[in-house]
Every structure is written in structure tokens, then in C-alpha cells.
UniProtKB/TrEMBL annotation:
Belongs to the short-chain dehydrogenases/reductases (SDR) family. This is Short-chain dehydrogenase/reductase SDR. Keywords: Oxidoreductase. Transmembrane segments: none annotated. One of its GO terms (molecular function) is oxidoreductase activity. Residues 1-21 are annotated as: Disordered. It holds the Pfam family adh_short_C2. It comes from Streptomyces bingchenggensis (strain BCW-1).
Length: 269
């Protein structure tokens, strides 16, 4: 028998003024895929800081998972790490079954897994493109039904992380570009079918990220930062902030949208 986590009271819209630190997410149960590095980790950190109980999914590095848990210790919420390749239906459903057993429900699902096989569009390797498509689509294609069942008592939030490469031709980015475009289309379809169950499905897209010392191609990064109206590149924390906002009670009427968080870079001609 599962030990269901206490469900936090859901505020009515008129009285939903949450503390800035928690955004009304205190006590929520969240599963973040690809959560031990990059944007996924930034999202996990934001949600744990807001008081959520967060399951950090990862597919490979135990060291990254251990580091992530150390970095999250002491924050308002709680975090556990679970290893599962969520592009595998079997591993995904095992992970979701553990969520049900441990918490009895799921309030937030953030899809932050990505794959990138650099290649041009002319002469692209089909196997690499298929791998990028699998990383973008399979977690929601295989998991949507089980995720929705875990959110049965609502409201629920599903947020996918996308990229401006879904709509612009980025050099050697054809695989993830096609994959993210398909992901954004899937977000719309899921939003239509799940809105009646009080589950909001949306995506957050961004451009090139500032990864600090690990940012590739510093010259290109500097040029893009100079073009960004906000005066710098987007950071993983910027994306995490928008993901968290879409998880709030006040965002419940936002359905099937792709919110761009890029400091205004996409507005440049």
C-alpha cells in the first residue's frame, strides 16, 4: 500500500497570493527528468527551494546525481535521485510506479531530457536524428497516460523544455531542431486532451545558454550575448524561473503554449 503524501491545499484564484519564495509550490510532488545537470538541475533546484518534493531522474552519471543531492541539501523542500532512462518505456513506467508507491500522486512533471548529434541537414545521419527524436518525444509519448493518472486529483502541470532551434536553422542542429519542433507539436496535442482533467501542458524554449566556463564556442556566445536586448546570454536559472511560474496555480489557464525565455534575442531581425 502506498503512503500518500499529504496534498497541499489548492488556493482559489482570488486568494492565490503565494509567498515569492514558494510560488505556492510548497509540498508539491515533482518529477524532473534529466535533473542532475544543466537546465534540468536548475529546474530541480528552483522547485526544491520553493518547498517541493522533487524526484531527480538521471540516466547515466552517479557522480552527477550525488553532487546534485549535495547541492540541494538544506533547501526548503526535499530531493531524491532515481536512475532511469526515460526514453525506455520499461524504465519510465518503473520510475512512475515508484512515484506512485512513495507519494501516491504527482503534481508536476518536467521533461528536460535532450540529445544532440551534431550534423548538417544535407548528409544528416538518420540514426542520430532518430536518437534526438526519441529523447524529445518518447518520455511523453510513452508516459502521458500514467503521468495523467498520477495527476488524477489535479491540478497537474506538465512542462517540456524546448529550443529556439525548433523554428530557426541553427548550424549542425538539425536533429534536436526537428525533435524540438515535434515536441512542441506534441505539447499542443496533450494540452487539448488533458485540459479537461485540470492538467496544464506547456513548454519553455530558449536560445544558446550561458554554461559558465563550460560554454562552447566563446566567440559565438559573446556575439549572441551582445545581440541580446537583455545584455547577456540566458542561464539555466532563467529557464527554471519560467518553468516554475508555469507550475503555479495562477498559470492554470495557460494551455499548450511555448513560452520563450531568451532575454529578447529572438526579437532581433
Amino acid at each position: 500500500m502506498s503512503a500518500e503524501a499529504p496534498r497541499p491545499a489548492e488556493p482559489e484564484p482570488a486568494e492565490a497570493g503565494a509567498e515569492p519564495a514558494t510560488l505556492g509550490l510548497d509540498g508539491k510532488v515533482a518529477l524532473v527528468t534529466g535533473a542532475t545537470r544543466g537546465v534540468g538541475f536548475a529546474v530541480a533546484r528552483k522547485l526544491v527551494a520553493a518547498g517541493a518534493q522533487v524526484i531527480l531522474d538521471y540516466a547515466h552519471s552517479e557522480a552527477d546525481a550525488e553532487r546534485a543531492l549535495r547541492d540541494l541539501s538544506g533547501l526548503k523542500g526535499s530531493a531524491i535521485a532515481r536512475r532511469a532512462d526515460v526514453t525506455s518505456p520499461e524504465q519510465l513506467h518503473t520510475l512512475l510506479a515508484e512515484v506512485r508507491e512513495r507519494y501516491g500522486r504527482l503534481d508536476i512533471f518536467v521533461h528536460s531530457v535532450a540529445s544532440w548529434h551534431p550534423m548538417p541537414a544535407v548528409g544528416a545521419r538518420p540514426d542520430g536524428v532518430r536518437a534526438d527524436l526519441s529523447a524529445a518525444l518518447d518520455p511523453l509519448l510513452h508516459g502521458a497516460s500514467a503521468i495523467a493518472d498520477l495527476m488524477a486529483y489535479g491540478p497537474g502541470r506538465i512542462v517540456a523544455v524546448s529550443s529556439s532551434g525548433a523554428h530557426r536553422a541553427v548550424p549542425r542542429y538539425v536533429g534536436p531542431g526537428i525533435a524540438k519542433a515535434a515536441l512542441e507539436s506534441l505539447v499542443g496535442y496533450l494540452a487539448v486532451e488533458l485540459a479537461g482533467r485540470r492538467i496544464a501542458v506547456n513548454a519553455v524554449a530558449t536560445a544558446k545558454l550561458d554554461k559558465g566556463p563550460d560554454t562552447p564556442d566563446p566567440a559565438t556566445a559573446a556575439a549572441l550575448a551582445a545581440r541580446t536586448p537583455g545584455g547577456r546570454l540566458t542561464t539555466p536559472a532563467d529557464v527554471a524561473d519560467v518553468v516554475a511560474l508555469l507550475c503555479t496555480a495562477e498559470a492554470g489557464w495557460i494551455q499548450g503554449q511555448v513560452i520563450t525565455a531568451d532575454g529578447g534575442l529572438g526579437l532581433r531581425a
